[in-house]
Amino acid sequence: MRFDENADLDTSNIDDLRGSGGGGVGGRVALGGGGLGIVGLLVFFLLSSLSGGGGGTSGGFALPGGLSGLPAGQSADNTQIAESCRTGADANSNLDCEVTAVVNSLDGYWSDAFARAGQTYTPPRTNFFSGQVSTGGCGSATSDVGPFYCPGDSEVYIDLTFFQELEQRFGAQGGPFARSYVIAHEYGHHIQNLLGTNRQVRSGDSGPTSGSVRLELQADCYAGVWGNHATTTPTASGRPLITDVTDADVAAALDTASRIGDDYIQSNLGGGRVDQSQFTHGSSAQREKWFTTGYDTGDPARCDTFSTNNLG
Known about the structure:
- The protein is an alpha/beta fold.
- It is built from 10 helices and 10 strands.
- A hairpin with a 2-residue loop joins strand 3 and strand 4.
- The protein starts with a strand and ends in a 15-residue tail after the last helix.
- It is a single-pass membrane protein.
- It is found in: Membrane.
- This is Membrane protein.
């Protein structure tokens, strides 16, 4: 995936919280009297937390609201990204700018999609943080939980070092479009929040056909829908930021989807036993299927995971 080097970037919907007093945890948080590293926490959150309902959070990895003992009052300093992320050329060489460009593209697509449906789209803010963060509606969290969306404040939160963890700990191929899938998935949760879909899910719901799984698979599908339109969606600059998405890019995104399926996490990072009754995000095959559904059709209406008995 490449960005148009001459297209302008817009950093106005990005809040850079790094360096605002949120660091210092070192990627660990005490839970139940013991410290867990990223692998342990990801398994815990995947198996025991609601994703997407009520006042909790939504994401490729679920986050229980209200973790305590983390700093509040963080403030954004966007000076650096505003100065360094000006054009698509910057997005091709700088991760901060790459994510900014993807956010621009996502806002462009969903704004148009909502307008075509006679609805008004309100973009989320995307927060870059380091180590730990305090949200406006879902309590506090560390980077161990991975990227997440908070329905309580309608914002996306991401420690960009997550992408390195995804490749090193999970063995994902990585690459710009795979990283874009992660961001687009969180945006999918924002769309669900705007439409009220997340409020259909009962807190604590789990299982292979649960509301939590349906919510996550729909977010994967929405991510694929955006991917279908990524090279044709103009942003505020009046031109598409993304110039090409290759078959290899799509394969890398599907590889990432497969690495964050409940069965993969349980088998490879959680002791080796797959327990479908604890599924909250869907299997690897399901996540690949629904991303592909969105990517192949480019139609959000094909992402209705709540009215089908066949989740894949």
